[in-house]
């Protein structure tokens, strides 16, 4: 446990400046910008509608945060080969701690965005006497809606992280010979993989296998019936599809760790 604490604290020290910038950006973009836009640009558009749209953009951006954070942390440590060559900690634990921290910070960032959105609504309620949200709608609906889109964004982020770490590892391996060649080969492999993956996912038997157990997004459906600012994510996720995605991601991560141990960390 002390080993994990030390690794996670090291990641936190590295991530603090970025997290501070993220807090400032969230406050300005959701807590300030909607009011300015409503006042000077789109006066007929409700403030909370603007804030909800910006929040949706945040969810899209944060879905890339686990992969980006992991690559930044790994690239920083690659400047110190002794971490990989002489550390008593297994590579799987070193990378696992980085991946866990990246996902944790993404979840915290989502909660921060949701919190700023809630404070913006509270501000409207205090100074205007009425909420900027549709009337007669239980607060639990909004909490459920935010939980749904946050879960989807976080899940996508973890899936992307598995693919990114694999190709980052391939690049680090190829870079030992030549950086330019490494970029070309890794890029070609990535494009080829995405092309093959597109063919597989549009293949009839795979679509059938991935189509079992549709996951309903009840709160998104309810809010879409009342107000068109809710994000319509209904019907795009299935239990079997999620399971296949997890299996594929685990495979990518295990392959990346194998390549890293055999070709990179030597």
Automatic annotation (TrEMBL):
Name by which UniProt lists this protein: ABC-2 type transport system permease protein
Transmembrane segments: 12-37, 49-74, 95-127, 139-168, 180-197, 233-260
Keyword Membrane set for record: yes
Keywords, ordered alphabetically: Membrane, Transmembrane, Transmembrane helix
Organism: Bhargavaea beijingensis
């Amino acid at each position: 446990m002390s080993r994990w604490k030390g690794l996670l604290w090291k990641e936190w020290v590295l991530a603090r400046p970025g997290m501070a910038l993220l807090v400032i950006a969230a406050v300005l973009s959701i807590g300030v910008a909607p009011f300015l836009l409503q006042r000077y640009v789109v006066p007929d558009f409700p403030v909370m509608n603007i804030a909800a749209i910006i929040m949706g953009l945040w969810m899209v951006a944060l879905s890339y945060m686990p992969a980006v954070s992991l690559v930044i942390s790994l690239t920083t440590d690659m400047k110190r080969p002794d971490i990989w060559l002489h550390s008593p900690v297994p590579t799987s634990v070193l990378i696992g701690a980085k991946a866990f921290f990246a996902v944790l910070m993404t979840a915290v960032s989502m909660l921060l965005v949701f919190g700023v959105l809630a404070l913006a609504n509270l501000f409207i309620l205090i100074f205007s006497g009425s909420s900027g949200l549709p009337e007669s709608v239980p607060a639990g609906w909004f909490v459920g809606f935010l939980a749904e889109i946050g879960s989807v964004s976080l899940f996508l982020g973890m899936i992307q992280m598995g693919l990114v770490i694999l190709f980052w590892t391939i690049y680090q391996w190829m870079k030992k010979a030549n950086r330019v060649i490494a970029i070309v080969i890794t890029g070609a492999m990535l494009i080829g993989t995405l092309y093959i993956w597109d063919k597989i996912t549009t293949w009839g038997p795979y679509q059938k296998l991935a189509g079992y157990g549709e996951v309903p997004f009840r709160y998104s459906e309810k809010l879409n019936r009342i107000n068109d600012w809710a994000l319509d994510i209904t019907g795009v996720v299935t239990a079997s599809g999620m399971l296949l995605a997890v299996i594929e991601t685990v495979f990518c991560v295990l392959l990346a760790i194998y390549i890293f141990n055999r070709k990179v960390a030597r």
